[in-house]
Specification:
Length: 175
């Protein structure tokens, strides 16, 4: 087993989602996909930069799932994966949009999928995050932070994260 600096326990909600997903490998359950149609004049390089800055401010997007020495699922920061968001070209988004959401293997991939796509008539931003690290409210915060970064505003890193919550909940359960 690979050695990790710090293992973060899952919250009870996360554990329930993890177990449910383990029972349905290869299926797209608990995924939150969005496909945003953007104006053709949106600067895709600037958007890509804004997304990368936003991810840095939200640590949960840099964590993957593994098991500890007792076989319990935990989160661990992925310090090896470097975010690459290629800007793809496509003739017609209708030909590929149903192929954009992909199932996650929570033990093998970061629980987020981002694609930037240009077509002759519009640009598209595809975002798929797993519910194990996000919900509708946090997706709204994420999108607002991306907009702020795109506009050149400073993104304020989270001061209390989902990781902090999970650790605090675990400590309370230990009692």
């Amino acid at each position: 087993m690979k050695e990790f600096e710090k293992l973060i326990p899952l919250s009870q909600s996360q554990l329930g989602i993890y177990i449910e997903c383990a029972q349905h490998p290869g299926e797209i359950i608990y995924h939150i996909p969005f496909l945003y149609k953007l104006h053709k004049n949106v600067d895709m390089q600037r958007l890509k930069s804004a997304i990368l800055k936003t991810i840095e401010a939200h640590p949960a997007f840099r964590y993957r799932f593994t098991t500890n020495n007792d076989g319990e699922p935990v989160m661990v920061e992925d310090k090896e994966t470097r975010w690459e968001i290629p800007i793809e070209e496509c003739d017609d988004i209708e030909k590929i949009k149903w192929q954009l959401p992909v199932p996650y293997d929570l033990t093998d991939a970061l629980p987020i999928n981002i694609r930037l796509i240009t077509t002759p008539t519009a640009n598209y931003f595809f975002l798929q995050a797993h519910h194990i690290i996000t919900d509708g409210a946090s997706m709204a915060v994420l999108m607002d932070d991306i907009r702020m970064a795109y506009d050149g505003e400073t993104i304020i890193p989270e001061t209390y994260t989902m990781l902090d919550y999970a650790q605090q909940e675990y400590n309370l359960r230990k009692g």
